[in-house]
Design goal:
single chain; 447 residues; alpha/beta; Rossmann fold; Dihydrodipicolinate Reductase, domain 2; Domain 3, Saccharopine reductase; 3 domains; seven-stranded parallel sheet; seven-stranded mixed sheet; 16 strands; 23% strand; globular
Length: 447
């Protein structure tokens, strides 16, 4: 095998492209980076002798298949809904496929065909999902192998900005990944297990019912809200009978209450267009959500609607976003969610010197030698700037390392997989340590 195709040169591609190009030089491989933005693809290849850029609109079937046909391994950094088309092409053309996205049921249905063709389709090979799976499975297997019985597993991850870069941003948050996914985060109903009982939190309660966690080296706790479905991985992790399992997302203190206010008002709704939204100001948009004034300002009426005082920390966050400005929205027939996304893109962009920060926290409660124990495992990583981000590294490096393993014939598994088997997580986590991806562990006896 000599040829690698990377589809997508966007926000999270920097680390995987750099890593794969480095390995290509060592192994005399050829790498094509394809994107609709050819200049961006050229920039990521950066005149590397083993790389070249190509223009690709992935919806153009013949162009897509032409590039895939020339590769041995395909890395798809496309939006998740486009992976399936690439997957069908990879089956037909007998190519391995690697993505960082959650594996859909439709993709899983390709498993038998991929296995029959001795292909590996590896999904969820990024950060979350990805590093979370691998680091969790490593500890779960270790606990089981020494005879421990797991009674609780909780795993939380957050893509944040570093504390020193918060500055005057009261949300303490900026976009380090897909903005649309941030806007839609949590929609649906969160499901998890607590003391053997199913728990459900619908979207309208999700950001109210957060919990707090302590993190080493930080002075104040962080907030965690539950992910949509924590139950998906019970069987995959070998935890079918565990009574407690929860996966969640980490945010700085104060974020959840403010995001809950946006939900209460109705600003995260993407189900209907607002007529003549391009002609409205943000102030008029807010007024549309509250009753008549009676001499009370729009800001004060919004405060009443969400049960806050006009000068509360939550209201200060809403005002900082610009929701009460008399500035035109300038998007026609936009949904509330789209208007909010546009506004947040203006306020939550990383500045050139901003550093992002990834936090990952695992908790394993287990019984061993007649005692109950709590093992915690924590990862902290900061980016260097707005391009060399921790998010890009931790999404891209696992994919790059896995490409190297596949190209060198080190992976025997076939079919549609996620990285929970030892032949994957052991070499990937070992090499990630060379990039300072190191988990700090602490274990205590709790009974």
């Amino acid at each position: 095998m000599n040829n690698i195709l990377i589809i997508g040169a966007g926000r999270s591609s920097t680390a995987v492209i750099s890593y794969v190009l480095k390995k290509a030089k060592e192994n005399n491989w050829q790498v094509i980076v394809a994107d609709t933005n050819i200049e961006l693809a050229k920039q990521k290849v950066n005149n590397h002798p083993n790389g070249r850029s190509a223009w690709l609109d992935v919806t153009k079937v013949n162009d897509r298949r032409d590039l895939i046909s020339r590769a041995d391994v395909v890395v798809s950094l496309l939006p998740a809904h486009l992976h399936l088309e690439v997957g069908h092409d990879c089956i037909k053309l007998k190519k391995h496929l690697i993505t960082a996205s959650y594996v859909s049921q439709e993709m899983y249905r390709l498993g038998d065909e991929a296995r029959d063709r001795e292909l590996i389709f590896m999904g969820e090979m990024g950060l979350d999902p990805g590093i979370d799976h691998m680091s969790a499975m490593q500890k779960i297997d270790e606990i089981k192998e020494k005879g421990g019985k797991l009674t609780a597993f909780r795993s939380y991850t957050g893509g944040l900005i570093a504390p020193e870069c918060v500055k005057d941003n009261p949300w303490k948050y900026k976009f380090t990944w897909n903005p649309r996914n941030v806007i839609l985060a949590g929609q649906g109903t969160a499901q998890y297990l607590e003391k053997g009982k199913l728990k459900y939190i619908p979207y309208n309660r999700l950001f109210k019912e957060y919990r707090l966690i302590e993190f080493p080296d930080f002075n104040e706790p962080f907030e965690v809200y539950a992910n949509r479905d924590s139950l998906l991985y019970r069987e995959v992790y070998g935890l079918k009978d565990i009574p407690n399992i929860l996966r969640g997302t980490i945010r700085y203190r104060g974020f959840c209450d403010a995001w809950n206010a946006l939900i209460k008002i109705g600003l995260t709704d993407g189900s209907y267009p607002i007529l003549d939204s391009d002609k409205l100001t943000y102030h008029e948009w807010m007024e549309a959500y509250v009753g008549s004034g009676g001499g009370i300002s729009v800001k004060d009426r919004i405060a009443q609607l969400i049960g806050e005082s006009p000068f509360s920390p939550v209201m200060k966050k809403l005002e900082w976003l610009g929701l009460f400005r008399k500035k035109k929205i300038n998007i026609d027939q936009a949904t509330p969610a789209l208007i909010l996304e546009k506004l947040l893109l203006e306020k939550w962009q990383l500045d050139k010197k901003d550093k992002d920060m990834i936090l990952m926290h695992h908790e394993f409660e287990y019984e061993f030698e007649g005692k109950k124990r709590l093992l915690t495992s924590n990862l902290i990583m900061k980016g260097n700037n707005s391009v060399d981000t921790a998010m890009s590294r931790l999404v891209g490096l696992p994919m790059g390392i896995f490409v190297n393993l596949v190209m060198n014939g080190k992976i025997k598994a076939h079919g549609v997989q996620i990285p929970v088997m030892k032949e994957v997580y052991e070499p990937v986590l070992a090499e990630l340590e060379e990039f300072d991806v190191v988990f700090k562990e602490n274990e205590i006896i709790i009974d």
